Amino acid sequence: MPDIIQLLPDNIANQIAAGEVIQRPASAVKELLENAVDAGATEIKLIVNDAGKALVQVIDNGKGMSETDARMSFERHATSKIKNIDDLFHIKTMGFRGEALASIAAVAQVELKSKKVEDTTGTYIEIDNSLVKKQEPVAMQQGTSIAMKNLFFNVPARRNFLKSNPSELRHIVDEFTRVAMAFPDVFFSLTSNGQQVFHLEKGTLKQRIVQILGNNYNAKLVSVQEQSNYMNIYGFVGKPDTAKKTRGDQYFFVNNRFIKSAYLNHAIMGAFAEMIAKDSFPMYTLFIELDPSQIDINVHPTKQEIKFEDEKIVYAFVQSAVKHSLAQFSISPTLDFELDASIQHSDAVSKPFTEERKSAATFSSLYNTFTKKNQAHFIENKSELKHWKDLYEPAKNESGFLGSTTEPVIEDQITINREQEFISLRAFATQPAMAMENLVQLHNTYIVLQNDTGFILIHQQNAHERILYERFVKAIDGKPIAIQQSLFPITIELAAMDTVIVNELLPELHLLGYHLEPFGNNTFVIQGTPADIAVGNEKTAIEKMLEQFKHFSTDLKYNKREKLLRSLAWQQAIKAGTSLKQKEMKILAEDLFACNTPNINPNGKPTYTVFKKNELDKMFGR
Ligand code: ADP
Ligand code: MG
Fold it and tell me: From CA 490, how far away is CA 421, in angstroms rounded?
């Protein structure tokens, strides 16, 4: 019996391999456009004839190739983009497999022209069926032009599988727009059978979206933007009234790579829940950026699928970012609440995550904070995210219903309600005349405030801790606190250990209104204290603050400054069980609403709860 195994000739092997990469003209369009982008082109022209079946040509003004590189580029696994397997996890380019040109050359006739800026002549190469037919110098501008002619001329079976011209052209336009969308600072044009179909001038992402998807989106885009250490998201979603009955205007990019992800689409749809009809599709063009080591783009040959190291985090981040943007958009006067511009632009709604909020987040249970507002901000780093992931587990075990579906289920409802709640709190704040009269204190602990839409219950201590904390943050950031100078300076003697702490804290204490002067032998002179500390209480105030500071000292997660702020806030706050006068309650409520993060105290405990009148009515069958 003779041996029967033989090696396939290169051109056949290439043809087979090409099947994965080049399925239709549009696949070549994608690969060639991406190569042009990778080459740093600022102008990219796509020309197709006969829906790409006769010709797909991409002309770019990128960096071009040397004669050797031009020849090499058609070899299988020839790439300038990765050198070893590690590079695969730091990919910043669109291509990396070194298969596209080899595949195209295996199933079509190819003409390449390329010139680097520093070379005097360019290189012209003609390849048929993986075989070089011609190679010669050519005079040309910097850049590259690759023309793919008569796709599948040598694989008739596959040629027969191509769809009608309109259908293939649609695929081409899809690929073209995906690349063009991701690079608004690059000029793109598409010419089909001699007619220019797209002419996309360089511009902003917003302009690019309108250029591609049409003018009707012009005033209808809501910007999405959230940043964290782990990942960023930016882009636009269409206002709910632009949602369409057909899916289509939906673009999602990961590190500028278009991807299809039912999972992330679900996240976005979840953010739109209740705002659009069930069977309609919102427009979105969203970009997420994250460390390439957190994704695996290698899972699919045409790279439209992607694996995330931790997809639940990405899901939640995307969803909360979109929700956050939509919430901002919906705080327009046409909706439930009469809110003025100052509120729309208020810090809590518009401000990025500050140090202070960040520490509030770290301290509180992540569940608590995530279900409140600006959730995306809380996704700060991997270690935090680990707890964050626990969010799913207990919920699953307790109720079972979360676990019963493979669909991702995250705290949609809660989040959106909280968002609303937050907005309605702001609404309370803007109607002082209504809400701030005849305040009631319950159990010397809770303050009741009402308006048309219901009432809220404020926890006086939690609320005051929040107010003081923000005041101290401001003070330390340079807006000093009112000080009363001591007429007859008091001295305070501390334990040696406390002396060390106070010496360390002197500058911060000064900003916060405590003027202490070291007097030797563990003694300090109190030259001044914050104006709101009652005369005679100076010593105790400092002692209590120190006590609290030491309490926080075991907590490594806080820096010195943070510990100090928290200690003071705790120490000076009105305690639960203290009877308050009308005026005091009013000031407390007003001050709370003026806070950046009014809904939680510095430790993440809620400061208030909203009771909506319509819900109360429902409880009573009304
Ligand atoms: P990959 O993009 O995965 O590296 P390709 O087969 O698409 O593989 O391209 C092979 C190589 O040819 C690229 O790595 C690049 O160096 C070079 N190349 C391809 N197209 C261009 C272009 N338009 N301009 C400059 N260089 C190009
Ligand atoms: Mg490529």
Answer: 48
